[in-house]
Amino acid sequence: MWVGVEDAFSLGANARIGAVGRISELGMCAGEVCPAASRLAPPTRHHPPKLMDIATIIGLQNRDGGWSYRKAGSSWTEPTVFALLAQLCGQSDAQSVERGFTWLRAAQRPDGGWPPSPSITQSTWFTAMVALLPRDALGGSHHASAIGWLMGQTGQETDSFASRMRSELLGTSNPRVGWPFFPGAAAWVTPTAMSILALEKARRHLNSNGIQKRIEVGRQFLVDRLCKDGGWNYGRSNVLGVDAPSYPETTGQALLALDEVELPRLRNALDAAQEQARSCQSSEGLSWLQLGLQAHGIVAASPARRLASRRLVDSALWILAQSALRGHNVFLE
Protein backbone atom coordinates (compact mmCIF):
# COMPACT_ATOMS: atom_id res chain seq x y z
CA MET A 1 0.00 0.00 0.00
CA TRP A 2 1.13 3.50 -0.76
CA VAL A 3 0.83 5.17 2.64
CA GLY A 4 0.05 8.87 2.88
CA VAL A 5 1.80 11.27 5.15
CA GLU A 6 -1.03 11.82 7.58
CA ASP A 7 -1.24 8.06 8.07
CA ALA A 8 2.47 7.67 8.69
CA PHE A 9 2.71 10.65 11.01
CA SER A 10 -0.26 9.37 13.04
CA LEU A 11 1.64 6.15 13.63
CA GLY A 12 4.71 8.03 14.77
CA ALA A 13 6.54 6.84 11.67
CA ASN A 14 9.83 8.37 10.72
CA ALA A 15 9.03 11.46 8.69
CA ARG A 16 12.48 11.32 7.15
CA ILE A 17 11.32 8.62 4.72
CA GLY A 18 9.02 11.16 3.16
CA ALA A 19 6.20 9.64 5.20
CA VAL A 20 5.61 7.08 2.49
CA GLY A 21 6.36 3.40 2.74
CA ARG A 22 5.01 -0.07 2.48
CA ILE A 23 3.59 -0.69 5.93
CA SER A 24 0.51 -2.54 7.10
CA GLU A 25 -2.89 -1.12 6.24
CA LEU A 26 -3.74 1.76 8.54
CA GLY A 27 -6.76 1.28 10.67
CA MET A 28 -5.56 -2.35 10.77
CA CYS A 29 -7.10 -4.93 13.04
CA ALA A 30 -5.30 -5.68 16.25
CA GLY A 31 -4.37 -9.12 15.00
CA GLU A 32 -2.10 -7.58 12.37
CA VAL A 33 -0.13 -5.78 15.09
CA CYS A 34 -0.08 -8.72 17.46
CA PRO A 35 -1.25 -12.13 16.14
CA ALA A 36 -2.37 -13.18 19.61
CA ALA A 37 -4.76 -10.24 19.80
CA SER A 38 -6.88 -11.72 17.04
CA ARG A 39 -7.79 -14.59 19.34
CA LEU A 40 -9.21 -12.35 22.05
CA ALA A 41 -12.50 -11.88 20.25
CA PRO A 42 -14.46 -14.00 17.77
CA PRO A 43 -14.00 -13.04 14.11
CA THR A 44 -16.63 -10.75 12.65
CA ARG A 45 -17.72 -10.59 9.07
CA HIS A 46 -17.62 -7.25 7.36
CA HIS A 47 -17.98 -6.00 3.86
CA PRO A 48 -15.13 -4.04 2.24
CA PRO A 49 -15.70 -0.27 2.28
CA LYS A 50 -17.26 0.85 -0.97
CA LEU A 51 -15.50 3.07 -3.45
CA MET A 52 -16.65 6.68 -3.39
CA ASP A 53 -18.07 8.32 -6.47
CA ILE A 54 -16.97 11.79 -7.52
CA ALA A 55 -19.97 13.45 -5.85
CA THR A 56 -19.00 11.91 -2.52
CA ILE A 57 -15.39 13.03 -2.94
CA ILE A 58 -16.49 16.58 -3.69
CA GLY A 59 -18.70 16.48 -0.59
CA LEU A 60 -15.66 15.67 1.58
CA GLN A 61 -13.85 18.89 0.66
CA ASN A 62 -12.77 20.85 3.72
CA ARG A 63 -13.80 24.44 4.34
CA ASP A 64 -10.29 25.64 3.54
CA GLY A 65 -10.56 24.15 0.03
CA GLY A 66 -8.33 21.11 0.49
CA TRP A 67 -9.07 17.46 1.12
CA SER A 68 -8.00 15.08 3.86
CA TYR A 69 -6.94 11.45 3.71
CA ARG A 70 -9.93 10.60 5.86
CA LYS A 71 -13.20 12.22 6.79
CA ALA A 72 -12.95 15.21 9.14
CA GLY A 73 -9.15 15.36 8.93
CA SER A 74 -7.00 18.34 8.05
CA SER A 75 -6.13 19.15 4.45
CA TRP A 76 -3.10 17.54 2.82
CA THR A 77 -1.51 17.96 -0.57
CA GLU A 78 -1.82 14.42 -1.91
CA PRO A 79 -5.59 13.87 -1.42
CA THR A 80 -6.24 17.39 -2.69
CA VAL A 81 -4.39 16.64 -5.92
CA PHE A 82 -6.17 13.32 -6.40
CA ALA A 83 -9.59 14.88 -5.74
CA LEU A 84 -8.87 17.49 -8.41
CA LEU A 85 -7.51 14.94 -10.89
CA ALA A 86 -10.64 12.85 -10.41
CA GLN A 87 -12.80 15.85 -11.27
CA LEU A 88 -10.90 16.20 -14.55
CA CYS A 89 -12.34 12.87 -15.66
CA GLY A 90 -15.86 14.16 -16.21
CA GLN A 91 -18.27 15.24 -13.52
CA SER A 92 -16.87 18.23 -11.67
CA ASP A 93 -17.93 21.20 -9.62
CA ALA A 94 -16.38 24.47 -10.80
CA GLN A 95 -16.52 26.08 -7.37
CA SER A 96 -14.97 23.01 -5.73
CA VAL A 97 -12.18 22.91 -8.31
CA GLU A 98 -11.31 26.58 -7.86
CA ARG A 99 -11.28 26.26 -4.08
CA GLY A 100 -8.97 23.28 -4.38
CA PHE A 101 -6.53 25.12 -6.63
CA THR A 102 -6.63 28.16 -4.35
CA TRP A 103 -5.63 25.94 -1.42
CA LEU A 104 -2.76 24.44 -3.42
CA ARG A 105 -1.43 27.81 -4.56
CA ALA A 106 -1.39 29.03 -0.96
CA ALA A 107 0.43 25.87 0.18
CA GLN A 108 3.33 26.26 -2.27
CA ARG A 109 6.63 27.01 -0.56
CA PRO A 110 9.02 29.84 -1.54
CA ASP A 111 11.42 27.32 -3.13
CA GLY A 112 8.72 26.33 -5.63
CA GLY A 113 7.89 22.96 -4.10
CA TRP A 114 5.01 21.63 -2.05
CA PRO A 115 5.09 20.12 1.45
CA PRO A 116 2.85 17.20 2.43
CA SER A 117 0.75 19.73 4.35
CA PRO A 118 1.09 23.44 5.22
CA SER A 119 2.23 22.52 8.73
CA ILE A 120 5.38 20.85 7.35
CA THR A 121 8.19 23.23 6.40
CA GLN A 122 9.90 21.18 3.69
CA SER A 123 9.10 20.64 0.04
CA THR A 124 8.87 16.98 -0.96
CA TRP A 125 8.02 14.68 -3.87
CA PHE A 126 4.36 15.78 -3.66
CA THR A 127 5.52 18.66 -5.84
CA ALA A 128 5.48 16.20 -8.75
CA MET A 129 1.87 15.31 -7.98
CA VAL A 130 0.82 18.96 -8.05
CA ALA A 131 2.70 19.47 -11.33
CA LEU A 132 0.51 16.78 -12.91
CA LEU A 133 -2.44 19.16 -12.72
CA PRO A 134 -3.26 21.40 -15.70
CA ARG A 135 -0.76 24.23 -15.98
CA ASP A 136 -3.37 26.88 -16.76
CA ALA A 137 -5.59 25.88 -13.84
CA LEU A 138 -2.71 25.86 -11.36
CA GLY A 139 -1.21 29.05 -12.76
CA GLY A 140 1.76 29.44 -15.07
CA SER A 141 4.15 30.84 -12.48
CA HIS A 142 3.19 28.26 -9.86
CA HIS A 143 3.68 25.45 -12.36
CA ALA A 144 6.99 26.80 -13.63
CA SER A 145 8.31 27.05 -10.07
CA ALA A 146 7.27 23.46 -9.42
CA ILE A 147 9.12 22.24 -12.52
CA GLY A 148 12.19 24.21 -11.49
CA TRP A 149 12.12 22.54 -8.08
CA LEU A 150 11.80 19.07 -9.64
CA MET A 151 14.67 19.70 -12.02
CA GLY A 152 16.89 20.49 -9.04
CA GLN A 153 16.23 17.21 -7.22
CA THR A 154 18.30 14.01 -7.44
CA GLY A 155 18.78 10.99 -5.25
CA GLN A 156 21.51 11.30 -2.63
CA GLU A 157 23.36 8.27 -3.99
CA THR A 158 23.94 10.12 -7.27
CA ASP A 159 27.05 11.92 -6.03
CA SER A 160 28.46 9.11 -3.90
CA PHE A 161 31.79 7.47 -4.57
CA ALA A 162 30.06 4.10 -4.95
CA SER A 163 27.70 5.51 -7.56
CA ARG A 164 30.53 7.05 -9.57
CA MET A 165 32.56 3.82 -9.36
CA ARG A 166 29.56 1.81 -10.49
CA SER A 167 29.08 4.04 -13.53
CA GLU A 168 32.74 3.65 -14.47
CA LEU A 169 32.65 -0.13 -14.11
CA LEU A 170 29.49 -0.37 -16.21
CA GLY A 171 30.89 2.02 -18.79
CA THR A 172 27.93 4.39 -18.44
CA SER A 173 28.75 8.07 -18.84
CA ASN A 174 25.42 9.15 -17.37
CA PRO A 175 24.41 7.90 -13.91
CA ARG A 176 20.96 6.42 -13.50
CA VAL A 177 19.45 9.27 -11.53
CA GLY A 178 16.06 9.08 -9.88
CA TRP A 179 14.12 11.33 -7.52
CA PRO A 180 13.91 11.10 -3.72
CA PHE A 181 10.89 11.43 -1.48
CA PHE A 182 12.51 14.50 0.08
CA PRO A 183 15.72 16.46 -0.62
CA GLY A 184 18.89 14.75 0.49
CA ALA A 185 17.47 11.20 0.48
CA ALA A 186 18.07 8.27 -1.83
CA ALA A 187 15.98 7.91 -4.98
CA TRP A 188 12.89 5.67 -5.00
CA VAL A 189 10.56 4.34 -7.67
CA THR A 190 7.36 6.24 -6.78
CA PRO A 191 8.77 9.81 -6.71
CA THR A 192 10.81 9.03 -9.82
CA ALA A 193 7.78 7.80 -11.76
CA MET A 194 5.62 10.78 -10.73
CA SER A 195 8.39 13.27 -11.53
CA ILE A 196 8.87 11.79 -15.01
CA LEU A 197 5.14 12.10 -15.69
CA ALA A 198 5.13 15.71 -14.47
CA LEU A 199 8.13 16.64 -16.63
CA GLU A 200 6.54 14.93 -19.64
CA LYS A 201 3.57 17.27 -19.28
CA ALA A 202 5.83 20.29 -18.76
CA ARG A 203 7.80 19.45 -21.91
CA ARG A 204 4.76 20.33 -23.99
CA HIS A 205 4.92 23.90 -22.74
CA LEU A 206 8.67 24.31 -22.28
CA ASN A 207 11.06 23.67 -25.16
CA SER A 208 13.94 22.46 -23.01
CA ASN A 209 16.58 19.88 -23.87
CA GLY A 210 17.38 19.71 -20.18
CA ILE A 211 13.89 18.45 -19.34
CA GLN A 212 14.01 15.77 -22.03
CA LYS A 213 17.44 14.61 -20.88
CA ARG A 214 16.28 14.44 -17.26
CA ILE A 215 13.27 12.35 -18.31
CA GLU A 216 15.50 9.91 -20.19
CA VAL A 217 17.90 9.52 -17.27
CA GLY A 218 14.98 9.02 -14.89
CA ARG A 219 13.61 6.29 -17.12
CA GLN A 220 17.02 4.61 -17.13
CA PHE A 221 16.79 4.60 -13.34
CA LEU A 222 13.43 2.82 -13.49
CA VAL A 223 14.63 0.21 -15.97
CA ASP A 224 17.65 -0.38 -13.76
CA ARG A 225 15.32 -1.07 -10.81
CA LEU A 226 13.39 -3.89 -12.51
CA CYS A 227 13.05 -6.82 -10.12
CA LYS A 228 13.83 -10.40 -11.05
CA ASP A 229 10.12 -11.27 -10.91
CA GLY A 230 9.40 -8.68 -13.61
CA GLY A 231 7.89 -5.84 -11.59
CA TRP A 232 9.15 -3.05 -9.35
CA ASN A 233 9.84 -2.76 -5.66
CA TYR A 234 9.81 0.63 -3.91
CA GLY A 235 13.59 0.79 -4.00
CA ARG A 236 16.34 -1.45 -5.29
CA SER A 237 15.71 -4.74 -7.04
CA ASN A 238 18.41 -6.50 -5.04
CA VAL A 239 19.68 -5.76 -1.55
CA LEU A 240 22.77 -7.49 -0.18
CA GLY A 241 22.40 -10.28 -2.71
CA VAL A 242 18.72 -10.90 -1.98
CA ASP A 243 16.20 -10.34 -4.78
CA ALA A 244 13.50 -7.89 -3.71
CA PRO A 245 9.84 -8.65 -4.48
CA SER A 246 7.78 -6.34 -6.67
CA TYR A 247 4.50 -4.71 -5.65
CA PRO A 248 1.38 -3.83 -7.69
CA GLU A 249 1.39 -0.08 -7.03
CA THR A 250 5.04 0.52 -7.83
CA THR A 251 4.87 -1.78 -10.86
CA GLY A 252 1.92 0.17 -12.23
CA GLN A 253 3.55 3.53 -11.53
CA ALA A 254 6.79 2.55 -13.28
CA LEU A 255 4.98 1.22 -16.35
CA LEU A 256 2.97 4.43 -16.52
CA ALA A 257 6.18 6.50 -16.54
CA LEU A 258 7.71 4.20 -19.19
CA ASP A 259 4.82 4.56 -21.63
CA GLU A 260 7.10 5.66 -24.50
CA VAL A 261 9.78 3.05 -23.87
CA GLU A 262 10.11 -0.14 -25.89
CA LEU A 263 12.58 -2.62 -24.48
CA PRO A 264 12.68 -6.43 -24.47
CA ARG A 265 12.91 -6.34 -20.66
CA LEU A 266 9.53 -4.60 -20.47
CA ARG A 267 7.78 -7.63 -21.94
CA ASN A 268 8.37 -9.52 -18.70
CA ALA A 269 7.23 -6.46 -16.76
CA LEU A 270 3.96 -6.32 -18.68
CA ASP A 271 3.38 -10.03 -18.10
CA ALA A 272 4.15 -9.62 -14.40
CA ALA A 273 1.77 -6.66 -14.13
CA GLN A 274 -1.08 -8.62 -15.69
CA GLU A 275 -0.50 -11.49 -13.27
CA GLN A 276 -0.42 -9.07 -10.33
CA ALA A 277 -3.72 -7.56 -11.47
CA ARG A 278 -5.44 -10.94 -11.41
CA SER A 279 -4.39 -11.56 -7.81
CA CYS A 280 -4.27 -7.99 -6.47
CA GLN A 281 -5.49 -7.47 -2.91
CA SER A 282 -6.04 -3.69 -2.89
CA SER A 283 -8.00 -1.28 -5.03
CA GLU A 284 -5.03 1.11 -4.99
CA GLY A 285 -2.66 -1.49 -6.40
CA LEU A 286 -5.15 -2.58 -9.04
CA SER A 287 -5.78 1.02 -10.14
CA TRP A 288 -2.07 1.71 -10.63
CA LEU A 289 -1.70 -1.54 -12.58
CA GLN A 290 -4.65 -0.64 -14.80
CA LEU A 291 -3.18 2.81 -15.43
CA GLY A 292 0.27 1.43 -16.18
CA LEU A 293 -0.94 -1.36 -18.45
CA GLN A 294 -3.35 0.94 -20.29
CA ALA A 295 -0.37 3.17 -21.14
CA HIS A 296 0.96 0.17 -23.09
CA GLY A 297 -2.36 -0.68 -24.72
CA ILE A 298 -3.28 -3.53 -22.36
CA VAL A 299 -6.51 -3.85 -20.38
CA ALA A 300 -5.83 -5.48 -17.01
CA ALA A 301 -8.11 -8.26 -15.82
CA SER A 302 -9.67 -7.52 -12.43
CA PRO A 303 -9.87 -9.90 -9.48
CA ALA A 304 -13.16 -11.73 -9.04
CA ARG A 305 -13.94 -10.16 -5.66
CA ARG A 306 -14.58 -6.52 -4.84
CA LEU A 307 -11.55 -4.79 -3.37
CA ALA A 308 -11.71 -2.48 -0.38
CA SER A 309 -11.29 1.27 -0.65
CA ARG A 310 -10.11 2.65 2.66
CA ARG A 311 -9.10 6.19 1.72
CA LEU A 312 -10.23 9.00 -0.50
CA VAL A 313 -7.09 8.51 -2.59
CA ASP A 314 -8.10 4.89 -3.31
CA SER A 315 -11.45 6.01 -4.68
CA ALA A 316 -9.96 8.85 -6.71
CA LEU A 317 -7.41 6.45 -8.20
CA TRP A 318 -10.19 4.06 -9.15
CA ILE A 319 -11.99 6.89 -10.97
CA LEU A 320 -8.75 7.77 -12.80
CA ALA A 321 -8.14 4.14 -13.76
CA GLN A 322 -11.68 3.65 -15.09
CA SER A 323 -11.29 6.84 -17.11
CA ALA A 324 -8.03 5.53 -18.57
CA LEU A 325 -9.74 2.30 -19.59
CA ARG A 326 -12.20 4.47 -21.54
CA GLY A 327 -9.29 6.18 -23.31
CA HIS A 328 -8.79 9.22 -21.08
CA ASN A 329 -5.60 8.81 -19.01
CA VAL A 330 -5.07 12.11 -17.18
CA PHE A 331 -1.46 11.18 -16.33
CA LEU A 332 -0.52 11.10 -20.01
CA GLU A 333 -2.60 13.97 -21.39
Jot down its keywords.
333 residues; mainly alpha; Glycosyltransferase; 2 domains; two-stranded antiparallel sheet
Structure overview:
With 333 residues, the protein is mainly α. It has two domains: 1-46, no CATH class; 53-325, Glycosyltransferase (Alpha/alpha barrel). It contains 15 helices and four strands. It has helices at 5-10, 30-33, 54-59, 77-87, 94-107, 126-130, 135-138, 140-151, 161-170, 189-203, 209-224, 248-257, 264-279, 283-294, 312-325; strands spanning 179-180, 187-188, 238-239, 242-243. The strands form two sheets. A two-stranded antiparallel ribbon has the order 1-2. The chain has a two-stranded antiparallel ribbon with strand order 3-4. Strand 1 and strand 2 form a beta hairpin. Helix 4 (77-87) runs antiparallel to helix 5, helix 4 packs parallel to helix 15 (312-325) and helix 14 (283-294) runs parallel beside helix 15. The radius of gyration is 19 Å and the shape is globular. Mean pLDDT is 83; it is low at 1-45.
Task: Furnish the topology, listing elements before pairings.
Layout (H helix, E strand, L loop, with lengths): L4 H6 L19 H4 L20 H6 L17 H11 L6 H14 L18 H5 L4 H4 L1 H12 L9 H10 L8 E2 L6 E2 H15 L5 H16 L13 E2 L2 E2 L4 H10 L6 H16 L3 H12 L17 H14 L8
